[in-house]
Input
Amino acid sequence: MYNSSKKPVWYGELIASRGNTVIIYDKQFPEASAGRVYFYNTARDAIIEYAEEIVKPHLHELSGAALATAEANFGAAWDVARTAFMAQHSGWVEAHNPKTSMVKKAKPEPIIEPEAELEAESTDEDDFDRGWSNDDFDD
Output
């Protein structure tokens, strides 16, 4: 159903004793804990982790006019909640969805300049003896 859909974003309805709620599933959501799944709950305006075993029998896919109405009514709020949620889980998203992560730019090749010629110090004896006098040393 929601996880077998070919669409990247699945709109459905969660039918519960408290009432029906439009929910949205995104295939790019990070994996939840084992046996759990993330859905955007339009009534709560939040992405919530649900126990998959409990909600799965109560999910029904929206289609036609209901789908168009849900997209029109909840699309903007969904985008805001999704952006915030994905930012919180950005490490997981980048690791598991390489298409959505930023493309790394190639490092520019370093510019290698010709080696500067080293200046050779003068080895004249005058350089070594200059400034030192034999008077400073006691024999």
About this structure: The beta strands are 9-16, 19-26, 36-41, 46-51, 59-61. DSSP finds four helices and five strands in the chain.
